[in-house]
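Why Protocatechuate 4,5-dioxygenase, alpha chain? Reviewers of the renewal asked for a concrete example.
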Amino acid sequence: MGLEHFNPLLRANDLVQDLKWDDELRARFETSEEEVLSSYPITEDEREAIRGRDFRRLYELGLHPYLLSQLARLIYGTGEKAGTSAAATALIQSLLGDDYERYMAARE
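Here is what the prediction returned.
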């Protein structure tokens, strides 16, 4: 996953950065996600992808790959082992789509 889709003007990049650094905003996002989403000048496509936890779509729209993982962690929390948390699993499933099961089978 490279930067070929990265769009520095995509406002969802700002939202994720703000969620990362602003504890109050993050707490509001956890309890009133829709309120936070509506307070940012993001497109309906961005809102829909965030609501649906569709990280692949966010990547295609231009969210920075680093921020994808940050958003997954903010939404799902973190795990004890690298790559085994709910955040990592959700991110990988979304990005790989139909190839997820094949990817997991190849890791065993």
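Residues 20 and 74 are 7 Å apart (CA to CA). This is the kind of structural detail the renewal will allow us to pursue systematically.
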